[in-house]
Specification:
The chain is mainly α. 73% of the residues lie in helices and 0% in strands.
Length: 509
């Protein structure tokens, strides 16, 4: 216990110290929200990766999908690395940086307002962001606190409140730059921690091959492959179609999440994009791939403590904490700091995104006229506290499993934003009506499914919402009035500006 407490004290001291060091960057709105748009490749890549993966992935998703799909759940981590990181950087990174800087937009709702010339779209997007980031934040608190309860036997409520306080302190003190530096430190901890934990858990099961042999003997309880032994060690697992839905939601979903896309706004230069792409992809392979690979062995830890006594159903969020409870104390301390690192980086990104959206896209020039730079930063700091308190209230009484909470949030946000953002960077023909249609479809499918349940899983509902947006935007754009050509052409001139480059970067024609 002493070792675990010492590790935590050091961790929190470093986080707060970085927040104090970064205070010089919070004098302006651009500095507080985007770090002055001058963040290097390593910080940006780690900020992207650590915002992507949190306790939701390590505790909630890895536990639930590892139990359902066995070793094949590793495909989710591979999809996260190739689609959610590599392709996202290649397809979105450069164009997002160039166009958002040209439009002087600081948030995703601001981008929609400037790109499509509509204040109403900007307001609608900011409301969607604020509403649907709350369940995501609550799910992060939920996952982290379960692990704390296992390691320290501390009541859930205390865990949530302490986490909230420390997140608020360093984000308010240092803004985006504090989160970026802390993300880098936390990312290093995550890389080392996940490798160590996998090795320790498998070693406790007699090694990788012995664990795999034991898993192969477990008969499947999934309807498609019920009774079949070896389904949980097969290439695509016992339920390939639902596995594909999870891969789509958790990988493609990042393309439409404001807290992820915001990292591209702050990139410093061309070199940062190249380097950041490699680092971010490697990070995702190790952390996401490692988390789901670990979760794939969850059925080896079948125990009465992971079942609900009344219903007899598996409590998915308890699988990973129980698995880790078998480790030595020093490793449990490492795991706690690992998941704490992942979660605090995600939380800081979420609260910063939500507060900046609320301030810059809703309150500024509407509710509060003539806001100075100093007043805008102060308002964001106050809203960070408000947003954290609100999400804590939900986290203290979470309505469903972690994965379902996150599925609702990702489904609505990515379903609404992915298509109009992606097409808006590449295609001049996107119309305002198409953007509205995408907003309506993303939120409509996710929310209606919450109440009616016509799609069995909120994860699949989120994936369907994203795919629907990708079809709806071009279809509606072809039959609705176009935005004035002169305005669109002026926006796209940002891509035609001449720049000089070395031959290492670009060959002469």
């Amino acid at each position: 216990m002493i070792v675990k407490i010492i590790l935590l004290v050091i961790f929190f001291a470093v986080m707060v110290g970085v927040g104090m060091y970064s205070r010089k960057h919070t004098a302006s709105v651009d500095g507080f929200v985007l770090g002055g748009r001058s963040v290097g490749p390593w910080l940006t890549a780690f900020a992207y990766g650590t915002s992507y993966f949190s306790a939701v992935v390590f505790v909630g998703y890895a536990g639930q999908f590892g139990w359902k799909y066995g070793i094949s759940s590793t495909w989710i981590g591979i999809g996260n690395a190739l689609i959610g990181s590599l392709l996202a950087w290649v397809v979105l990174g450069r164009r997002t940086k160039v166009m958002t800087q040209h439009l002087q937009s600081k948030t995703m709702p601001d981008f929609f307002g400037e790109r499509y010339g509509s204040e109403a779209l900007k307001v609608a997007a900011s409301v969607i962001v604020f509403v649907f980031l709350i369940p995501y934040t609550a799910s992060v608190y939920n996952g982290l606190s379960r692990l704390f309860g296992m390691a320290f036997d501390i009541p859930y409520t205390y865990c949530v409140v302490v986490m909230a306080i420390f997140t608020a302190i360093y984000v308010i003190l240092g803004g985006y730059m504090a989160t970026a530096i802390n993300d880098f430190i936390q990312g290093i901890i995550m890389l080392v921690g996940i490798v160590t934990v996998i090795a320790a858990v498998l070693n406790g099961q007699g090694g990788f091959l012995h664990a795999l042999q034991t898993m192969a003997q477990i008969p499947s309880d999934v309807p498609l492959t019920i009774g079949q032994p070896g389904a949980f060690t097969s290439f695509f697992g016992p339920d390939p179609m639902n596995l594909l839905g999870v891969v789509i939601l958790t990988s493609l979903g990042t393309w439409g999440l404001p807290q992820m896309i915001g990292k591209f706004y702050a990139i410093k230069d061309e070199k940062s994009i190249h380097t950041g792409t490699v680092i971010s992809t490697f990070f995702a392979i190790v952390v996401a791939g490692g988390s789901y690979f670990l979760g794939g062995f969850g059925r080896l830890f079948d125990n009465p403590s992971i079942y609900n006594e009344e219903t007899g159903l598996v409590i998915f969020d308890s699988i990973i904490p129980y698995m880790l409870s078998t480790l030595p104390d020093i490793l449990i301390g490492t795991v706690v700091v690992l998941v704490l690192s992942a979660s605090m980086s995600t939380l800081s990104s979420l609260v910063l995104t939500s507060s900046s959206t609320m301030t810059l896209d809703l309150l500024k020039d509407r509710v509060m006229k003539n806001m100075s730079e100093k007043k805008q930063v102060l308002t964001m700091q106050v809203l960070i506290v408000f947003f954290i308190v609100l999400s804590v209230v939900i986290a203290l009484n979470p309505p469903t499993f972690i994965a379902q909470l996150m599925g609702i949030s990702w489904g609505a946000l990515a379903g609404a934003f992915l298509a109009p953002f992606l097409y808006g960077l590449y295609w001049k023909g996107v119309t305002k009506a198409a953007v509205w249609a995408s907003f309506a479809a993303g939120v409509g499918i996710t929310v209606s499914n919450m109440f009616i349940g016509y799609i069995s899983s909120p994860i699949n509902a989120g994936a369907i919402a994203m795919v629907a947006g990708l079809v709806i935007v071009p279809a509606v754009s072809l039959v609705t009035p176009k935005i004035e050509k002169r305005k669109v052409d002026r926006i796209f001139t940002c891509y035609d500006e001449k720049v000089t480059s070395t031959k290492k970067r670009s060959l002469e024609r």
